[in-house]
Backbone:
């Protein structure tokens, strides 16, 4: 019983202490509130669509570039579609890509970091040199090359490769495939420290399997840096998705995302510059909010954090 108790509490902030530290960080609290509002608005996109009596996919060429009014809160685009509702639907896609890709990358990085830190030796050397190699690759050019690969030439069935959601799955997979390195190094460092603790040695002496030790005794004690790194990476992933969609290699129309909405706005910059304001503003606010939230979580989860 003492082993489990020690392993569950070592190196982690108490819940009430965490909340007290996090609540004192006003930028982090404000960022959390902003992100909740953005997520709720995106989830309620069909409700806004019904309330305003518009259709996000309906083309109305007689209502192009309409100014904001009671029905179209942000006006209409080059196809007469409501910009506000499309922005909400685009938020669904961009936030989904950010969350799923960041969680996927964190899962891969956690597994690699645990294995490298616990077993050490040649496995540690192999995994960490692989990590260094991925870090050394230029990220954006690599993503552009991977996003431009023809899926059918890789053996993916044509029906799947040409489906509307294929670009979404591809972006999530590609970003998760190259975005795990930070979490892997943090988890490895934490595992090396925790592995030398008495409760881990006691568990080994009692004959506990390595998988049980890693998941039950080590992982709970390195979860704080995983949470912080994942939160910070969500904003980076959203930005990368927006860049790839802006270049025409990300989420493909008719599925709206903040990135491809910016692409359309760029082509109409001289005629309707206001179309770039909405997606550009929400991308900026969301990425900044995730960064402030990550900083706040880091301060709150660090037991050595001092009062400001």
Residues:
């Amino acid at each position: 019983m003492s082993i489990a108790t020690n392993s569950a509490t070592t190196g982690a902030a108490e819940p009430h202490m965490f909340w007290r530290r996090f609540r004192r960080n006003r930028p982090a609290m404000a960022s959390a509130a902003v992100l909740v509002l953005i997520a709720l608005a995106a989830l309620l996109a069909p409700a806004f669509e019904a309330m305003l009596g518009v259709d996000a996919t309906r083309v109305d060429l007689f209502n192009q570039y309409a100014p904001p009014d009671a029905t179209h809160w942000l006006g209409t685009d080059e196809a007469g579609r409501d910009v506000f509702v499309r922005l909400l639907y685009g938020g669904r896609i961009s936030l989904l890509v950010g969350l799923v890709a960041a969680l996927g990358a964190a899962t891969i990085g956690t597994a690699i970091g645990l294995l490298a830190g616990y077993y050490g030796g040649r496995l540690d050397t192999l995994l960490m040199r692989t990590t260094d190699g991925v870090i050394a690759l230029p990220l954006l050019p690599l993503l552009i090359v991977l996003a431009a690969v023809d899926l059918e030439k890789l053996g993916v069935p044509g029906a799947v490769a040409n489906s509307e959601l294929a670009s979404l799955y591809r972006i999530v997979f590609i970003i998760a495939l190259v975005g795990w390195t930070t979490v892997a190094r943090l988890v490895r460092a934490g595992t090396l420290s925790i592995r030398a603790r008495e409760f881990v040695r006691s568990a080994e002496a009692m004959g506990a399997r390595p998988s049980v030790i890693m998941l039950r005794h080590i992982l709970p004690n390195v979860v704080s840096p995983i949470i912080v790194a994942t939160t910070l990476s969500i904003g980076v992933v959203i930005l990368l998705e927006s860049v790839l969609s802006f270049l025409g290699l990300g989420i493909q129309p008719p599925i709206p995302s903040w990135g491809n909405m910016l692409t359309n706005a760029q082509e109409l910059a001289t005629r309707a510059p206001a179309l770039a304001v909405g997606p550009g503003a929400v991308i900026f606010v969301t990425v900044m909010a995730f960064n402030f939230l990550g900083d706040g979580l880091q301060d709150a989860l660090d037991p050595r954090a001092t009062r400001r």
Remarks:
- The radius of gyration is 23 Å.
